[in-house]
Design brief:
By secondary structure, the protein is of the alpha+beta class. The protein contains 5 helices and 6 strands.
Length: 116
């Protein structure tokens, strides 16, 4: 697996989870210009980080999706909520700021958890 990240962005949780799971992965640190470039857009058309390139050629984007994937792929690492715990899984998702599309407007500035 390859984790694409940009220093100062939000992929820290994905990076920690990969290390915690003792997964076989490499890290590609990208600059802002590289993330917006044509080559990276072929990997991730959204042109955002993190992106996790899987061994089968699929690409996962968004921290929450990557964390859920890793929790299920590496159950012995005991990350996240166990798959059979429906209530716990919903509470975990509700508490995740990246799962919220709510924007709070304050004059001309806005704060959107989903844009972080």
């Amino acid at each position: 697996m390859i984790l694409y990240l940009m220093p100062g962005a939000c992929p820290l949780a994905s990076h920690i989870a990969l290390a915690w799971a003792d997964a076989d992965y490499t890290v590609h640190r990208l600059s802002r210009e590289t993330v917006r470039g044509k080559a990276y857009r072929q990997i991730n058309p959204k042109a955002v980080v993190p992106a996790l390139f899987l061994d089968d050629g699929n690409v996962l984007t968004e921290s929450l999706a990557i964390l859920e994937y890793l929790a299920e792929k590496y159950p012995k690492a005991r990350m996240g909520v166990q798959p059979d715990d429906v209530e716990g899984r919903s509470i975990s998702t509700r508490r995740s700021p990246s799962s919220s599309a709510t924007c709070i407007w304050r004059g001309r500035r806005s704060w959107c958890p989903s844009a972080m």
